Amino acid sequence: MIMLVAAVLAVILGSGTGCSSSPPQITIEGQYAEFSPLFIGAGSFYMTIRNAGGRDKLAGVAASLPGTVIELHDVRDKRMVRVEEIPIPARDTVELKPGSLHIMIYNMPKAIRQGSELDLTLRFQRSGERTVTVRLQK
After folding, report:
1. pTM of the predicted structure, to 2 decimals
2. Domain containing residue 41: CATH number
3. Which of 88, 100, 101 is nearest to 52 (CA)?
4. Does residue 16 sit within a domain?
C-alpha cells in the first residue's frame, strides 16, 4: 500500500513539472504609426508580435517622450476601449492593427511630425523589455 501511494505521488509531482510553459520567443516586425484623425497630438501604433515559444503578455509600453500618456487599446463593438494587457499566446502571432488591438500615445510634442521616428519600449510579462523604432506615417 505504501509503495502504491509513493508511486501515485511520484506521478503527480512529476506531471506537475511538465505543465510549466516554455520560455516565450518574441519577435516584433512591421511596426508603424499613424496620427489620430480625432485627437490632436495622439497616434495609433501598430505591429506584428510573433511568439515561437511559450505564452506571454504585453503588459505595458514606454516612450522617451516627456508628458505622454500611453495606453493599450482594443476595439469592441466599434468602440475603442483601454485594456490592461494583451495576451501573446504560445506559438502564435498577434497583430496590432487598425480597428483592433493597438497602442495609443496621447500628448505627443508638437515637434513630432509625419516621418518622425520614436523608440517604444514594450514591456512583456515574461520576456522583459523590447525596444522598437516606429515611424509616424500620415
Report:
1. 0.83
2. 2.60.40.1890
3. 88
4. no
Q: Is residue 33 part of a domain?
A: yes
Range from 22-26, 30-34, 61-65, 85-89 carrying the lowest mean pLDDT:
61-65
**What's the pLDDT tens digit per position in 112-131?**
999 999 999 999 999 999 99
Cα 95 to Cα 100: distance, rounded to the nearest angstrom: 8
Q: Range of 126's domain?
A: 21-132
CA distance 64 to 21: 33
CA quadruple 110, 115, 118, 124: dihedral, nearest 10: 120
Q: Which residues contact 131 (CB under 8 A, 6 or more apart)?
A: 119, 120, 121, 122
pLDDT, tens only, 61-76: 999 888 999 999 999 9
In a domain, 10, yes or no: no
